Amino acid sequence: MSNASPVELHYLDAGPAERDSAASDALPLVVIHGLLGSADNWRSHLKVWQSQRRVIAVDLRNHGRSPHAKGMAYVTLSDDVLALLDRLGVERAHILGHSMGGKVAISLARLAPERVASLLVADIAPVAYRHGHDDVFAALREVERGHPQNRREADELLAKHVDHRPTRLFLATNLERRESEKGSVLALRIGLDAIMAGYDDVIGEPAAGENPYEGPTLVLRGEDSHYVSDDMLPTLRAVLPQARVVTLKNAGHWLHADQPAAFQKAVEAFLASQSK
Q1: DSSP state of 237
Q2: Catalytically annotated residue among 25, 134, 163, 193
Q3: 1 and 115 in contact (C-beta within 8 Å)?
Q4: Cβ neighbours around 140 below 10 Å, total
Q5: For 81-141, where are the E strands, in sequence order?
Q6: Among 78, 107, 149, 184, which is most buried by a count of CB atoms within 10 Å?
Q7: What is the C-alpha separation between 17 and 215, in angstroms, rounded?
Q8: Which residues have a Cβ under 8 Å from the Cβ of 275 and sit 6 or more positions away?
Q9: Where are the alpha helices (DSSP H) in the chain?
Q10: Is 253 an annotated catalytic residue?
Q11: Which helix (DSSP H) or strand (DSSP E) does residue 143 occupy?
Q12: The one catalytic residue among 33, 63, 253, 256
């Protein structure tokens, strides 16, 4: 496990309707967002899945409303999630992670397989990736320096480095209003310094346990994404030998946003195939 002390993660807890005993008896689903995301990005999915089971969406350290702290190694991030599950009294759960969150989920499954009933990995492979967020980090630094007073000004600052408007809208979910010496401004709520300092860990491989994760696994990938290419599948299956790989059509890396209904149905069908 990590040498870093776990932080107390913020989370969204969408419990099943009390009148539904089957949903109340089902094992929880834990949802882990990707780089620069948050639990808030998953609210629409939580509303759907909570009819079947308790759903817990976490904010990883330096993201969302969770504390800012040094250390972005996957063993550290998975320890944070395990500490949250301990705090909530969740002994075993289905674990779903997207992108960076998928690597956290894989790490958790390999380091503590007894806590994982099944694993769902969204558009990421257990491999090291190349640097690819320089423009995003530059855009976020631009916002830090610019002290925008409204969303329009923030978007103009982000656009100096990021042309793709959907990406800018996603990055803008990390803004919150604060009072400063310049008045009321929009500021970043993420721990950008810690994220950038730990970026090599973020794009690296997940933490390795003693063995592959042998439990039931679903890997969802976007048809238009390069994050889980065919040449990565042998490495993926060496780490996740029970993995079933499903490709969602007309979906990119943010497949849960590109094809939300198809994504929800794939997750629901997989979880329904498990005992609880």
Answers
A1: H
A2: 193
A3: no
A4: 23
A5: 93-98, 116-122
A6: 78
A7: 28
A8: none
A9: 21-25, 43-49, 74-88, 100-111, 134-146, 151-158, 165-171, 192-197, 199-202, 233-239, 255-258, 260-272
A10: yes
A11: helix 134-146
A12: 253
pLDDT at 15: 85
User: Where does the pLDDT of residue 5 fall: very low under 50, low under 70, confident under 90, or very high at 90 and above?
Assistant: confident
**d(C-alpha 27, C-alpha 120), whole Å:** 14
**Per-residue model confidence as pLDDT tens digits over 77-127:** 999 999 999 999 999 999 999 999 999 999 999 999 999 999 999 999 999
Quote the tokens at residue 71.
């250390």
Active site residue: 66, 99, 107, 118, which one? Answer: 99
DSSP 112: -
CA-angle at 264, arms to 164 and 31, nearest 5°:
80
Rounded to two decimals, the pTM is 0.95
- Note if 229 is an active site residue: no
Task: Evaluate whether 257 touches 123 at the Cβ level (below 8 Å).
Answer: no
Give yes or no: 193 in active site. yes
Torsions phi, psi for 158 (to 5 deg) = -65, -35
The number of CA neighbours under 13 Å toward the Cβ of 175 is 28
pLDDT digits (tens, 9 = 90+) for 133-182: 999 999 999 999 999 999 999 999 999 999 999 999 999 999 999 988 77
